[in-house]
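Annex B. Sample input.
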Amino acid sequence: MGSRARGLAGWQEARTAQGDQWWTYAVGCARGLRAGAPPPTMTVHGLVMGRGEHPIVQGDVQYSRFWAADGTYNRTSTFALGHPAFVLSTLAVGAMVNGSRKRAARRDATMAWRETQQSSFLVTNRGILCHTMAKGWLRFDFAMVSEFHPDLPNWSVSLGFQEAAPLRLSGPAAPALALWCGHGILGNQWSADPRLAPLLA
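Annex B, continued. Sample output.
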């Protein structure tokens, strides 16, 4: 086995171990919640919590948003003087550049998961905070959620909002995110959601 294959196998093993740890954590917390225990709390330094807001869990996750660009692009205008072969080749290059930009703009104009990146997250009793490369810490309040889609078999949670692009968080921490989002969005009815039933099995 080559070093690359060993590295990939080690990464997959570590990811599986992380998934097992997160699954065990989520199942334990789900059983505690159903029995009437309050969510756990933790201390966080650096991020300022709102009045009555309590941090529950933090970790790392793959972050992405679902949106489309407007499909516009900058068209290059080409003007050339000289030998006919030079003029034709310059115009051909300009047409190729414009064609490439047009195809890229069409691709960007389709709805797709974008901004995919590894992100730190913090779940509180009021919402989720995610750290992105471009914008730093972003807050997603449970009160603003219009759609909640936990997908435990695929290790992801998607949230829809009335005023913002949908958010998808995926990776080993998904069971914990599904539990705490379900509890934050649905309240005590979280345990009646069949998509969260595997956490109570």
